[in-house]
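Translate structure to sequence.
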Protein backbone atom coordinates (compact mmCIF):
# COMPACT_ATOMS: atom_id res chain seq x y z
CA UNK A 1 0.00 0.00 0.00
CA UNK A 2 1.35 3.42 -0.87
CA UNK A 3 0.39 4.97 2.50
CA UNK A 4 -1.95 4.33 5.42
CA UNK A 5 -4.50 6.70 3.84
CA UNK A 6 -4.15 5.91 0.17
CA UNK A 7 -4.69 2.61 -1.61
CA UNK A 8 -2.75 2.20 -4.85
CA UNK A 9 -3.83 -0.35 -7.44
CA UNK A 10 -1.90 -1.41 -10.54
CA UNK A 11 -3.70 -2.41 -13.73
CA UNK A 12 -1.14 -4.11 -15.99
CA UNK A 13 -1.67 -5.17 -19.57
CA UNK A 14 -0.78 -4.86 -23.22
CA UNK A 15 -3.52 -2.31 -24.03
CA UNK A 16 -2.97 -2.75 -27.77
CA UNK A 17 -5.08 -0.65 -27.98
CA UNK A 18 -7.03 0.40 -24.87
CA UNK A 19 -10.70 -0.53 -25.39
CA UNK A 20 -13.90 0.59 -23.67
CA UNK A 21 -13.64 -2.69 -21.72
CA UNK A 22 -10.27 -1.64 -20.27
CA UNK A 23 -11.69 1.82 -19.54
CA UNK A 24 -14.62 0.27 -17.70
CA UNK A 25 -12.32 -1.89 -15.53
CA UNK A 26 -10.04 1.08 -14.76
CA UNK A 27 -12.88 3.36 -13.68
CA UNK A 28 -14.48 0.59 -11.62
CA UNK A 29 -11.16 0.08 -9.84
CA UNK A 30 -11.39 3.63 -8.49
CA UNK A 31 -14.39 2.46 -6.44
CA UNK A 32 -12.07 0.27 -4.38
CA UNK A 33 -8.71 2.08 -4.71
CA UNK A 34 -7.73 5.72 -4.26
CA UNK A 35 -5.13 5.80 -7.02
CA UNK A 36 -4.66 3.66 -10.10
CA UNK A 37 -1.47 3.09 -12.05
CA UNK A 38 -2.18 1.70 -15.51
CA UNK A 39 0.97 -0.10 -16.58
CA UNK A 40 1.78 -1.08 -20.17
CA UNK A 41 4.10 -4.09 -20.16
CA UNK A 42 7.06 -4.23 -22.52
CA UNK A 43 6.90 -8.03 -22.24
CA UNK A 44 3.54 -9.75 -22.75
CA UNK A 45 3.04 -13.36 -21.62
CA UNK A 46 1.00 -14.38 -24.65
CA UNK A 47 2.90 -13.88 -27.85
CA UNK A 48 1.35 -11.15 -29.93
CA UNK A 49 2.29 -9.03 -32.87
CA UNK A 50 1.55 -5.53 -31.67
CA UNK A 51 -0.34 -2.96 -33.71
CA UNK A 52 1.05 -0.08 -31.66
CA UNK A 53 4.36 0.58 -29.96
CA UNK A 54 4.42 0.76 -26.16
CA UNK A 55 4.85 4.53 -26.49
CA UNK A 56 1.77 4.82 -28.72
CA UNK A 57 -0.29 2.65 -26.35
CA UNK A 58 0.77 4.82 -23.45
CA UNK A 59 -0.14 7.99 -25.34
CA UNK A 60 -3.62 6.59 -26.04
CA UNK A 61 -4.11 5.66 -22.37
CA UNK A 62 -3.05 9.16 -21.31
CA UNK A 63 -5.53 10.72 -23.74
CA UNK A 64 -8.36 8.42 -22.65
CA UNK A 65 -7.84 9.05 -18.92
CA UNK A 66 -6.92 12.75 -19.16
CA UNK A 67 -10.13 13.54 -17.25
CA UNK A 68 -9.22 11.38 -14.23
CA UNK A 69 -6.50 12.79 -11.92
CA UNK A 70 -6.48 9.59 -9.84
CA UNK A 71 -5.20 7.57 -12.80
CA UNK A 72 -1.56 7.64 -13.98
CA UNK A 73 -0.29 5.73 -16.99
CA UNK A 74 3.22 4.32 -17.27
CA UNK A 75 5.11 1.52 -18.98
CA UNK A 76 7.30 -1.04 -17.25
CA UNK A 77 10.01 -3.47 -18.23
CA UNK A 78 10.75 -6.81 -16.62
CA UNK A 79 8.58 -8.71 -14.19
CA UNK A 80 5.24 -7.39 -13.03
CA UNK A 81 5.95 -8.46 -9.46
CA UNK A 82 9.14 -6.36 -9.34
CA UNK A 83 7.18 -3.36 -10.59
CA UNK A 84 4.42 -3.97 -8.01
CA UNK A 85 7.00 -4.20 -5.24
CA UNK A 86 8.77 -1.00 -6.34
CA UNK A 87 5.50 0.93 -6.48
CA UNK A 88 4.24 -0.45 -3.17
CA UNK A 89 0.83 -1.22 -4.65
CA UNK A 90 -1.89 -2.74 -2.50
CA UNK A 91 -3.14 -4.96 -5.31
CA UNK A 92 -3.09 -5.78 -9.00
CA UNK A 93 -6.38 -5.55 -10.86
CA UNK A 94 -7.31 -7.54 -13.94
CA UNK A 95 -10.54 -7.80 -15.90
CA UNK A 96 -12.35 -11.11 -16.05
CA UNK A 97 -14.76 -11.22 -18.97
CA UNK A 98 -15.77 -14.86 -19.09
CA UNK A 99 -14.86 -18.29 -17.79
CA UNK A 100 -12.47 -18.56 -20.75
CA UNK A 101 -10.28 -15.84 -19.19
CA UNK A 102 -10.05 -17.69 -15.91
CA UNK A 103 -7.35 -20.23 -16.67
CA UNK A 104 -4.85 -17.69 -18.02
CA UNK A 105 -5.56 -15.21 -15.22
CA UNK A 106 -5.39 -17.85 -12.50
CA UNK A 107 -2.10 -19.19 -13.84
CA UNK A 108 -0.53 -15.72 -13.96
CA UNK A 109 -1.81 -14.78 -10.51
CA UNK A 110 -0.47 -17.97 -8.96
CA UNK A 111 2.91 -17.67 -10.68
CA UNK A 112 3.22 -14.06 -9.56
CA UNK A 113 2.33 -15.04 -6.02
CA UNK A 114 5.01 -17.74 -6.06
CA UNK A 115 7.56 -15.05 -6.92
CA UNK A 116 6.18 -12.36 -4.60
CA UNK A 117 3.74 -13.77 -2.00
CA UNK A 118 2.62 -10.29 -0.92
CA UNK A 119 0.94 -9.69 -4.30
CA UNK A 120 -2.84 -9.58 -4.16
CA UNK A 121 -4.88 -9.89 -7.35
CA UNK A 122 -8.39 -8.51 -7.62
CA UNK A 123 -10.53 -9.42 -10.61
CA UNK A 124 -13.30 -7.14 -11.78
CA UNK A 125 -15.93 -7.92 -14.39
CA UNK A 126 -16.80 -5.33 -17.01
CA UNK A 127 -20.28 -4.14 -17.81
CA UNK A 128 -22.21 -6.96 -19.56
CA UNK A 129 -22.32 -5.15 -22.91
CA UNK A 130 -18.49 -5.12 -22.96
CA UNK A 131 -17.96 -8.72 -21.90
CA UNK A 132 -17.24 -9.98 -25.45
CA UNK A 133 -14.73 -7.26 -26.22
CA UNK A 134 -11.00 -7.83 -26.63
CA UNK A 135 -8.18 -5.70 -28.00
CA UNK A 136 -7.24 -8.46 -30.45
CA UNK A 137 -10.75 -8.49 -31.97
CA UNK A 138 -10.72 -4.70 -32.18
CA UNK A 139 -7.37 -4.83 -33.99
CA UNK A 140 -8.56 -7.48 -36.40
CA UNK A 141 -11.88 -5.82 -37.22
CA UNK A 142 -10.22 -2.42 -37.64
CA UNK A 143 -7.51 -3.89 -39.84
CA UNK A 144 -10.12 -5.48 -42.09
CA UNK A 145 -11.96 -2.19 -42.45
CA UNK A 146 -14.79 -2.88 -39.96
CA UNK A 147 -16.39 -0.25 -37.75
CA UNK A 148 -15.02 -0.36 -34.19
CA UNK A 149 -16.40 3.00 -33.08
CA UNK A 150 -18.64 1.30 -30.48
CA UNK A 151 -15.67 -0.38 -28.81
CA UNK A 152 -13.00 2.30 -28.39
CA UNK A 153 -12.75 5.98 -27.50
CA UNK A 154 -12.67 8.52 -30.35
CA UNK A 155 -8.95 9.18 -29.83
CA UNK A 156 -8.17 5.46 -30.18
CA UNK A 157 -10.48 5.19 -33.18
CA UNK A 158 -8.62 7.91 -35.03
CA UNK A 159 -5.24 6.28 -34.32
CA UNK A 160 -6.61 2.92 -35.50
CA UNK A 161 -7.84 4.41 -38.76
CA UNK A 162 -4.52 6.16 -39.34
CA UNK A 163 -2.62 2.94 -38.57
CA UNK A 164 -4.66 0.68 -40.80
CA UNK A 165 -5.27 3.21 -43.57
CA UNK A 166 -1.56 2.93 -44.12
CA UNK A 167 -1.89 -0.87 -43.80
CA UNK A 168 1.22 -1.39 -41.65
CA UNK A 169 1.95 -2.81 -38.24
CA UNK A 170 4.75 -1.60 -35.97
CA UNK A 171 6.87 -4.39 -37.34
CA UNK A 172 6.14 -3.28 -40.86
CA UNK A 173 4.79 -6.70 -41.82
CA UNK A 174 1.37 -5.45 -42.87
CA UNK A 175 -0.17 -8.17 -40.73
CA UNK A 176 -1.44 -7.77 -37.20
CA UNK A 177 -3.00 -10.44 -35.03
CA UNK A 178 -2.61 -12.57 -31.92
CA UNK A 179 -4.56 -13.31 -28.78
CA UNK A 180 -5.51 -11.14 -25.87
O1 LIG B 1 -3.18 -7.58 -21.62
P1 LIG B 1 -2.39 -8.84 -21.43
O2 LIG B 1 -1.46 -9.07 -22.61
O3 LIG B 1 -3.24 -10.03 -21.12
O4 LIG B 1 -1.45 -8.60 -20.14
C1 LIG B 1 -0.53 -9.57 -19.70
C2 LIG B 1 0.50 -8.95 -18.76
C3 LIG B 1 1.16 -7.76 -19.43
C4 LIG B 1 -0.18 -8.51 -17.49
C5 LIG B 1 1.56 -10.04 -18.43
O5 LIG B 1 2.06 -10.55 -19.64
C6 LIG B 1 2.70 -9.53 -17.57
O6 LIG B 1 2.56 -9.41 -16.38
N1 LIG B 1 3.85 -9.17 -18.22
C7 LIG B 1 5.04 -8.69 -17.52
C8 LIG B 1 6.16 -9.75 -17.49
C9 LIG B 1 5.89 -10.76 -16.38
O7 LIG B 1 5.85 -10.43 -15.22
N2 LIG B 1 5.70 -12.02 -16.79
C10 LIG B 1 5.43 -13.11 -15.87
C11 LIG B 1 3.93 -13.29 -15.68
S1 LIG B 1 3.53 -14.57 -14.55
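Result:
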Amino acid sequence: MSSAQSTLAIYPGSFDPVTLGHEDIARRTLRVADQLLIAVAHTATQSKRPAFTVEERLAMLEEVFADEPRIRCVSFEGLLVDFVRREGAAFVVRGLRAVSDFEYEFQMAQMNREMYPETEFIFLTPDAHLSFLSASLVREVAQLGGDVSAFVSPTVLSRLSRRFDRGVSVEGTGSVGGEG
